[in-house]
Amino acid sequence: MISLSDVSYAYPDTDHYVLSHVDLGIEAGTVTGIVGASGAGKTTLAKLISGFIPHVDGGELSGTVVVDGVTMAEVTLAEAVSHVGLVIQSPFNQISGAKFTVREELAFGLENLGVPRDEMAERVTEVAGLLGITGLLDRSPYALSGGQQQLVAIASMIIMRTPVLVMDEPTSQLDPGGTRMVFDVMSSLRDAGVTLVIFEHKLELLREHADIVHVLADRQLIASGPSRTMLADPRLEDWGIGSTRFTDASSIARDRGLLGKDVELPVSLDDAIPLYRDFRSAKGN
Ligand SMILES: Nc1ncnc2c1ncn2[C@@H]1O[C@H](COP(=O)(O)OP(=O)(O)OP(=O)(O)O)[C@@H](O)[C@H]1O
User: Fold this and answer.
1) What is the whole-number distance in angstroms between the Cα of residue 81 and the centre of ligand 1?
2) Do 68 and 249 touch, CB atoms closer than 8 A?
3) pTM of the model
4) Ligand 1 within 6 A of 96 CB?
5) Locate the ABC transporter domain: which residues (predicted)?
6) With contact defined as beta carbons under 8 Å apart, do 9 and 15 qualify?
7) Interface pTM (ipTM) of the complex?
8) Structure confidence at residue 95 as a pLDDT band (50, 70, 90)
9) Burial of residue 90, with CB atoms counted within 10 A of its CB: 0-12 exposed, 13-18 middle, 19 or more buried
10) Which residue CA neighbors atom 29 of ligand 1 most closely?
11) Domains of the chain (ranges plus CATH)?
C-alpha cells in the first residue's frame, strides 16, 4: 500500500539531507508506528508519504514514494490527497481559515470534491459523533482549545475517507482521556480497512495499537519489528527515544534476578500483567 524506495530529501536552501536512502514498505490495512528523537525527521517523512513533499515544501527529492498505486511526485497535490490524508502536528495550522464554524470546516474538503449536500451533512454528523465533538459544530474553529482543535483537525481528515491516513503526533494537545479516544477511533478505522501510519512519542499506546514499529535515526529507518519487541529494545535509549515505565521496571527486576534472564520485557500494562502473575505463582503466593 505504501512503498518508499531509496528516498533522500533536503529542504530548499539547505545543504544537507534530512533523510538519506530510506526504504519502507507498508501493507494495506495495517497500523504502523514510527518513532524517533526530536528532529530525527518524523514530520519530514510524514510529509513525504502524503505528497506535501515535494508539492508544498519543494526541496531536493530523489527515489520514489508510491501510495495506493500512485507515485506521489507524479500527480498533483489534489490527486495525492485523495489517496492519503495527513493530520499535521499543529492543529491550528490544519484549520483552513476559510470557514466560520466547525461544521463548515469539516465539510470543506468534501465541498471541494463536489460531494452532495445531504451526504456531506451525514458525514459531518457521523465523524463529529465518532470524535465526541458534536457540541462544537456551531462554534468557530478558532474559539476552541488546542485539544478541541486537534480533534477537529483529525475529524477533517477522517471525513475524507482516504484509504491511507498519516498522523503526525495526533494526540500532542490531548489529555489522557482524549488521547485514548483518538486511539480507539484509530482502531475502528483499522477495522474498516484504513491503512494507518502514526508518528508518536507515546510508546505504551503505540504498543497497544501498532502492528509494526520503525525507528527513525541518523537520517534512516534503522530498525523495525513487531511493536512488543521493537518498543522494548534497549537501543531505543541510545536513539533518544526512551522506554516505558513497564520496560524500565522489568529490566531492573531482571537485573536483580527477580525475573528470568531471558524474559521478554513488557512495554505496556497488558504485557506486564502475565509476567507479574508468573512471578507471583513462582514465589508460591
Ligand atoms: N522547512 C524546513 N527547512 C529547513 N529545514 C527544516 C525544515 N523543516 C524541518 N527542517 C529540519 O529537518 C530536520 C527534521 O525535522 P522534522 O520536523 O522532520 O523532525 P521531527 O522528528 O518531526 O522533530 P519533532 O519530533 O521535534 O517534531 C530538523 O533538523 C529540522 O530542523
Assistant:
1) 22
2) no
3) 0.92
4) no
5) 2-243
6) no
7) 0.97
8) confident
9) middle
10) 39
11) 1-83+162-233 (3.40.50.300), 101-161 (no CATH), 244-285 (no CATH)
